[in-house]
Amino acid sequence: RAKDVTMPAKLPVNFFSFFFSVIDLFRGQLDYAEHLRQDSEIVLYFFYAPWCGQSIAAREEIEHVASRLSDQVLFVAVNCWWNQGKCRKQKHFFYFPVIHLYHRSFGPIEYNFFFSAVYIEKFVRRVMTPLLFFFSRSKLLDFLSNYEPGVLGYFEFNASPQPPGYLTFFTSALHSLKKDYLGTIRFGVITDKRVAEEISLVHSGSVYLHRHVNTSLIYPNDIMNFTAENICKWALENREMLIRWLRPHGGKSLLLNNELKKGPALLIFIPYNPLAEIHPLLDEITKVALEYHNCNKSQAAEPDLQHLRDSDSPAFDSSVPDAHMKLSETFSITKYPCCNTVVLPQWHSISRTHNVCELCINQTLGVKPNKVHVPHCNFLEIEAALDSFYLQEHTFFQVISNTIECSNFLSFYSPFSYYTACCRTVNRHFLSFISSEKTIFQTPKVAFSSHGKKDNTQHSIPHIEDRNWFIPDLHISGTNITGLSCRTNKTLNLYLLDSNLFWIYAERLGASRSNHLKEFAAIVDLKEEVHYVLDQNQSLVGSALENFIKNFSILYSPLKRHLVDDPPLHFHEQHVITEVSTHTFHDTVFLSEKNVLLLYYAQWCGFCASLNHIFIQLARLLPPDNFTVARIDITRNDLPWEFMTDRLPTILFFPHQRKEQSVKFPEDFSVNLPNLLKFILRHSSLSSSEPCTKECLHKEAVLQQGHISHLEREIQKLRSEISALHQAHNQLEAQLSEARREEHRLQQQKHTLEKQHKTLQLHSEQLQATYDQKNQELLEMAEKLQELADASENLLKENTLLRILVASREGKLQSKDETKESLQSEQILSEDNDISVSTAVATLDEKRIDNIDTVETEHSSGNRTE
Amino acid sequence: GAAMLRSLGSFLCLWALRLPVAPAGSGAAARGLDVASYRERVRAMFYHAYEHYLESAFPYDELRPLTCDGQDTWGSFSLTLIDALDTLLILGNVSEFQRVVNVLQEGVDFDIDVNASVFETNIRVVGGLLSAHLLSKKAGVEVEAGWPCSGPLLRMAEEAARKLLPAFQTPTGMPYGTVNLLHGVNPGETPVTCTAGIGTFIVEFATLSHLTGDPVFEDVARKALKALWKNRSDIGLVGNHIDVITAKWVAQDAGIGAGVDSYFEYLVKGAILLQDKELMSMFLEYNKAIKNYTKFDDWYLWVQMYKGTVSMPVFQSLEAYWPGLQSLIGDVDNAMRTFLNYYTVWKQFGGLPEFYNIPQGYTVDKREGYPLRPELIESAMYLYRATRDPTLLELGRDAVESIEKISKVDCGFATIKDLRDHRLDNRMESFFLAETVKYLYLLFDPDNFIHNDGSVFDVVTTPYGECVLNAGGFVFNTEAHPIDPAALHCCRKRKEEQWEVEDLMREFYSLKKTKKFTLKRTSNHGEGESPKYPEDAPSEKSGEKRNSKKNSHSLLSCPSPSFNSKLAVLGQVFLDNT
Predict the structure, then answer these.
(1) CA distance B49 to chain A (A)
(2) pTM for this predicted structure
């Protein structure tokens, strides 16, 4: 039956398209695959399932790697899905594909990362040569200065065939690849005694773990057994991770969660080719990381740093020493070139504790050598200082005291200067005496805001750190990158991400789409829910990173929370609702001369999406001259804290002229058109009761104009409604006439049917009459039959009586002689006649016959008993 | 879609939860999947199945892909054709949509002596016809003047729904599972119905009521929902099957999968569609209990509904809709974590087995099949909207590759009978074209009109007034038939609202003329109307917005995305989200 028809799975076919470099065991011949291992020192097994998208995607990458390494590595692909195959029967994989590597008999070493050809190739190469050999000092220094931890073994190769312990060390290198599938710990071997002494290794067979900041370690042979597992474990436990690669494998993982929960993190995205010989950018970042962690100018890190500097490309060679010369200069800056006393206005929050401050401007002459030293304060400069000072108002929070408190802060307007403020409390009457001065400091603000605007035109989003970039060694509040990690209470963890694989995270943090270099750095503070972004207009170099770190670390960080701004993909074609982004938020909401209704939404939130039509209707109703209906997708656009909401949808109304007094649509009311209109009506700006001026009249005229156009629109709408009604009317009429026709037809049908019915009725009456008649006849017939039956019964009775009579007669006659024989023959004749009558009755009614028969047999049996 | 759960074995054993294995990612995420090519492959899949159905199976309900013929399964209404109708439009095939609308109008008859499942008829037939009706104008069908409040497809949907109404004539208001389309409920019909078979009507029935103006549909659907709510256990869970006469629970396993699934789905979707707080509060209560008793390590297990003890540590293919549902109410982080668990099961088999034993990490006996169900893909589509995580496209890629490699046969796509060896069965369920293909296509087509975020819309003039339609926010019924929420506001009660709005607009223009007086009138205006906007409505100033005194937020809202969510892509998940 068709219902029970099933079909077995299709037979496996070649997965790799006859690619000569890869042996494709598509029938899952695991035994043969293992047999093949004898042929090659290094074997890569690619276990796949033919239906698996991941296997299909990885196939291409494997082919690529195979084409490059086929002379040294045997590539074997095994279909581990087909249920008739050996592989499926013996192995139990939870996912596909799985890559296993064997170095001779050592294995399997699983490769467990993105299936990208370069990373696979790198890993295979590591398995091929797990150990690096160092014969010269410079190569060794190269190895040691790397950001990834290194383990070194010293083995004298005089003994044959191999020095003791070498094989164990070799195996431990392979072993580490099993645990640490990306191979962050590198293993090296020193064969030269003099080179070994550089790192204080004297005995052949000793193992050394290099560390940059902490002291390096020598494997404790006396405490732990010298086994491959132990060496590997020891290295993993004690390694130093100044800067780490974050390499999420793509499956569900808590990697970022665990790392970012440790504290603020600097994520650096760079495009990384694992196969490349040199990574200049990475070296530079390493240098920053080393400096950052180099507490107390530890001796350990110095040689590495020195080496890094030496090995830098010529371009860096010139810049780095320069920077260090400046470093020394910065300490010699003339202190406090000009000062001025400021009385704080009463409205200022600091004025509660301090009311007189001395502001001093410090300028770094080394950076701007052309600037002439000013002994007295320039008016503009002190104003700028004051402005910055007010913005940093939280600087002072101690209770009123007569002691003088000092603080350094960075100028908001000029990157070339910082200020020092020393504040104290003085008597009230003294204050009033000089209070007249304060006005001086308030008037020229305009000039400075315009200065700020000029900055805006240069960089779309001004960052403090961009400006500092021009002067890499400016010391803000005496902050220096060297060993900063130990001095600050906002220690950063440093991480690297390959932007070829993980650029999506950079995009999420606000990397611009025009960033083609794919270099990006951001500080993420999960706890504070903020992140900062290094300006993307400059290239990612060490000094920029240093400044970024410094600005983050200082007490009053000038970094600004980065707001991710993702302009909407679809603009409103009908231009009914204004789509707001982070960038346009202020302009649309605060600067516009209209009442603004703003909807916070997210496309994925079901409750938002189902309100779309209501807002479109609202926007179409409200006069566009006075009202803006806007919305902002909160998933794509961050806003300053004070404008964030915790639920979606949220509806805010910003009345014209009172934009700061925004009102929230109450949550317990359903969002529909009348409620929204009432809400707007209630809160939209009302002109106060001032007498009507010309302007007011004009406004009113405009309003009435608006009303008229609204009414016109309404009329238009009503007209179209009328036409729709007409249409519906016509349609109904058509249906009605159709129905009438139908009714008429039905009526006619009914008539004919009725006629038919009448004739049928007549017919049936006639039939009834004949039926009755027949019935009557039948009844009569039955009666007659009954009579006949009775008659026959009588006859039968008579017959039996006669028989009895005859029998008795016969008995009587027996005694008489044979002379009366003629009389006896007559008697038999009359008996025959009786029987013929009874058969005639039987043909008329069978039932009766039956009865008669039984009666007869009864009689006869009765006769016998008698 | 949901399916009935026939028997629930108990797996009372000690078990440890297996941590999901870490699957290796792929370079595809980095390079970016070729979305357009996968979209075209999905389109080709659709036509391969659809054309063979028309050729070999029409007018039967379903195609039998191995024998290349048709059979009736859920009735006799050319089910696959009704179900696939709106998929045609989503694929952009307007002409075929129009042709099929005509075919259905002539060919489908509900006056037949057939015993039909009330649930399946509702979600596939009524839902399919309703969505086709609402989309017909967009598809270029010549609609009548009263559209969307009248039309031939709407009348068909109404007729089909009326055939189901007798099933609701029970003492509890909970419907029977089966009804005869001609005679009503058969005498001697079993009163045991699964939970989903009781609570999966509100989306279609409320839409019908709003469009036709006859409240009977919405009323019976609500009554059934309330009856279930009333009969939940003390710890707030519902079982699997209930007696609709006595309201006694017959199967007491509580979970989110087979037998219950679309009940929860419809509470949320009903709340969204109707802006109904009551439905949402019911769901939130259930959600709390589900989290408390059934959730372990982002898996959802089966528990005893009264005691809360684990009865089956299995994951069911049908449960995979849950992450999608969570994303609709803004619980994206949890949704993603559960989704990633489910995705590992797909990677193990190339499909989702009906039951998957979580501690054992393998299929459950007799439940190894995969009838090409859509749930996981559905969740991927919703989550992709919310996160744009390339992992979700990878699931789409895997689904396309698996289905093409495993279940494609000359005559269509066949159900996988056993995921362990990929043996095929002679069936192609109608939801393959209605849901699986539709969600796959939508996953790969982010610019589809279904994903409209409100940036485009249509204005339709009806005899009842002007309507804004097709402004996005489509609510999918459990058979993936999209319903436009705007259409519900188009027909019923339109006039009252319109007059009110008109009055308010007049106030608007006279506002500045008669100042304070008007304001007073404005605030009095709402009196006697519900919901009323009171004079002293709590209005907070912008400064106080964030530390609002009220802790209770509107039920009909989602939480704003957390800071973590920026980085919660490519498999990364975060703990302790507040």
Answers:
(1) 18
(2) 0.78
